[in-house]
Amino acid sequence: MKINSECVSITQSENLAVVTLKNPPVNALSKAVRVGLLEALDAALANNDVDAIVITSALPLFSAGADISEFAGGNLSPMLPEVLNRIESSPKPVIAAVSGNAFGGGLELALSCHYRASFKGNKVGLPEVHLGILPGAGGTQRLPRLVDAKTALDMIVSGAPTPVVKLGGVFDVIVDSVDELLAGATTLAADAVQKGPRPVSDIELSSTPETAALLDGYAQQVAAKTRGFFAPLKCVEAVKAAYDLRFSEGLNKEAELFMQCMQTEQARAQQHFFFAERAAGQVPGLSKEAGVRDIKNVAIIGAGTMGGGIAMNFANAGIPVKMLELKAEALDKGLSVIRRNYENSAKKGKLTQEQVEQRMSLLTGTTQYDDLSDADLVIEAVFEKMSVKKEVFTQLDAVCKPGAILASNTSTLDINEIAACTSRPEDVIGLHFFSPANVMKLLEIVRADKTSDEVIKTSMKLAKTIRKVGVLVGVCFGFVGNRMIEVYGREANRLMLEGATPEQVDKVIMQLGMPMGPFTMGDMAGLDIGYFVRQSRKAFIEHDPSYCVVADELVEAGRAGLKVGKGVYLYEPGNRKPIPDPEVMEIAARKAKELGIEQREISDQEILERCIYPLINEGANILKEGIAMRASDIDVIYVYGYGFPVFRGGPMQYADEIGLDNVLARMKYYQENLGEYGKHWFEPSELLQELVESKQTFASLNK
Predict the structure, then answer these.
(1) Of the candidates 306, 362, 304, which has an alpha carbon nearest to the alpha carbon of residue 336?
(2) Does 1 have pLDDT greater than 80?
């Protein structure tokens, strides 16, 4: 048997037709694969010597599902639902030998087969919800016919991978290892020939009072937990259709709900972010000859909160870490905090005690710089002051071996200036972790003027090793993330001077989808951090006497935030819930009077525009200066580093969605209507103006 496909092959083994997918890298079910599957099915059905058909993969995974790049349109016939319906209606039994992960359409392909085999340790899932959509090729109708309603809902609404061993209703055979799978599938096929086809669509479902109550309760929970997302509730509605409608009607309902999801801004945003995250890992222009250095052991300077969190990332990845503190007490405290963090994870069932001890065994401490001489990578995580950083790097330059990468975790300071105090600036790079460093996924990788391509490549690869999303940025104050957040925080503080309460500002920003507003975030991070930064940047803000003056007074009065029980808000002992404090608005009123600022009632829309539009504008400036390579890189930084809602895609995607002309018009409005303050702080970016004039978007810059 032969078919005209490079992505799908078919061979005969006795009475079996073995159809093998091979569409690197992830067996996406592109049009070529769909056509190949139908050709293979027709060939197998036409061959009288074939009694059963096995579908499997030549790659390490079965299939990652649909080719998302095809969502933009074009001639997509045959569509995946059509292909899967043809497979399910085959008069000869079809067996899926799920030889690796099967996600999205990949699992839907397996579900359309009459029998399924896999191996222990494998996982499958329906992650479409992460793209703002739902399974659209029968997944919401077939899965509930093979598992209980709760399992089907959990898989479809969460999108999380599920071990096949927990899906006995889906898989007829689960062998011990992938090496045994083909033999297991062959045995299953022999049984299938005797029993004949067994379409999942023939399984009848009906709603019981218990099932109806489960679905209603689940919908209520989803509505509460997925604020701002459109698809999760539609997923529940689709699963409900499996119980309320006949199979064919359920498929029609699924298709209808799928299209509803596809047409939302949430789907556009989430699909944009899917590609943005993958694009961030690609760095154009690096030398092909540049290699990647082996990072077999790491040293961390500083065992405080940040240093300890960074160390945990490497221990979690099995990489030995040596931590340096000049005082033994600080070192012991840092190591004990790490152990306590791991012990807490063990209490929650996230780690075994054996794993705790294994990770702690990778962590050692020292008080001597000489002990870092064999480190492949050293990351400095000390106080955010240039003189302190330079002192550390001078010491590292003296003791570290040739070829060691010297990295700073600075969040704002000039990496070029730090590199200049060493004899090896080509080995110096910024690795900006976000707090808590062992939790946050973002890693800003800061390329200095002389950083070598080899060091950049190594750092980008290392980000993946420690399960971070690495984004390469250039040198400027605050790099990308903190440079933009400065604008956002500044405007929130100015709005308070003009009459908006902190709780009103925070409410508006949370309604946008952020996990917390700027004032709550400031209290959690520590108001003193921003205060120290402002003290070092007086030349930048001296023209604006109103700049964060309320925040400065709070810090000077000892109100540094949550850690001391009071900042912009008050906090009860052991409770992180912010309590509004009228005294703060009294300070704001007094400061406004001193500065000649008239207080007034401020609308929620003005708060949204004044906090978010200047942030977008600053992102445009960053792109114009080449600090970020792509607008989508900024989106990745803001979603993973600052909690910008993924259902909005990041600030630059959000700007495209609401219209760059609207952003520009409101920037100009505030520039003209906020006096001297507006003239300076609301100056529109050149790039923003250029894009509006040429009717382009930020997304157009990513191509």
Answers:
(1) 304
(2) no
Cα dihedral 334, 336, 341, 347 in deg (nearest 10): 180
From edge to edge, which strands make up the β-sheet containing 16-21?
8-13, 16-21, 52-57, 94-97, 115-119, 173-175
User: Which residues, in sequence order, are CB contacts of 206 under 8 Å at separation 6+?
Assistant: 243
Under DSSP, the state recorded for 563 is: G
In the beta sheet, which residues pair with residue 299? Answer: 322, 378
Give one DSSP letter per residue of 175-224, joined into a string: ESSGGGHHHHHHHHHHHHHHH----GGGS-----HHHHHHHHHHHHHHHH
Measure Cα distances from 271 to 285, 436, 513, 573 in Å.
26, 27, 17, 42
Closest-CA residue to 465 (of 636, 316, 328): 316
261: closest CA among 99, 362, 130, 170? 130
Helix (H, G, I), strand (E, B) or coil at 256: helix
Statement: residue 548 has pLDDT above 90: yes
Helices within 59-171 (DSSP H only):
80-88, 105-112, 139-142, 149-158
Beta carbons within 8 Å of 404's beta carbon, 6+ residues apart:
375, 376, 377, 378, 396, 427
Output the CA–CA distances (angstroms, integers) from residue 579 to 129, 283, 604, in the order listed: 35, 45, 20
Q: Which two tokens stand for residue 660?
A: 């760059």
Instruction: Tell me the pLDDT tens digit for each residue of 362-416.
Output: 999 999 999 999 999 999 999 888 999 999 999 999 999 999 999 999 998 999 9
Q: How far apart are CA 486 and CA 488, in angstroms?
A: 5
Question: pTM value?
Answer: 0.93
Neighbouring C-beta atoms of residue 244, cutoff 10 Å: 17
Give the tens place of pLDDT for each residue, 251-304.
Answer: 999 999 999 999 999 999 999 999 999 999 999 999 999 999 999 999 999 999
Instruction: Give CA separation, 159 vs 134, 231, 672, in Å.
Output: 9, 11, 47
Instruction: Give the SS3 label for residue 672.
Output: helix
pLDDT band at 5 (very low <50, low <70, confident <90, very high): confident
Q: What is the mean pLDDT of residues 42-56?
A: 96
Residues 6+ apart with CB under 8 A from 58: 9, 20, 21, 22
Question: How much is the pLDDT for 69?
Answer: 85
Residue 174: enclosing H or E segment and its boundaries? Answer: strand 173-175
How far, in Å, CA of 463 to CA of 446, rounded? Answer: 13
- Residue 137 tokens read as 């090729």
Strand, helix or coil for residue 439:
coil
Domains and CATH numbers, the chain: 8-261 (3.90.226.10), 298-473 (3.40.50.720), 481-702 (1.10.1040.50)
d(CA 506, CA 80): 44
Name the amino acid, one letter, at 621: N
Can you tell me the distance from the alpha carbon of 421 to that of 390, in angstroms, rounded to the nearest whole number? 6
Which of the residues are catalytic? 108, 128
Strands 321-324 and 363-366: parallel
The number of C-alpha atoms within 13 Å of 75 and in the hemisphere containing its C-beta is 2
Average pLDDT over all residues of the chain: 95
CA atoms in the 13 A half-sphere facing the CB of 319: 24
Which tokens go with 122? 């494998």
Phi-psi region of 159 (alpha: psi -120 to 50; beta: other; left: phi over 0): left
Q: Based on the number of CB atoms within 10 Å of its own CB, is 676 exposed (0-12), middle (13-18) or buried (19 or more)?
A: exposed
The two three-digit tokens of residue 107, written as one number: 């699992």
Confidence of residue 542 (pLDDT cuts 50, 70, 90): confident
d(CA 359, CA 353): 10
Cα separation of the two ends of the chain:
42
pLDDT in tens, 321-358: 999 999 999 999 999 999 999 999 999 999 999 999 99
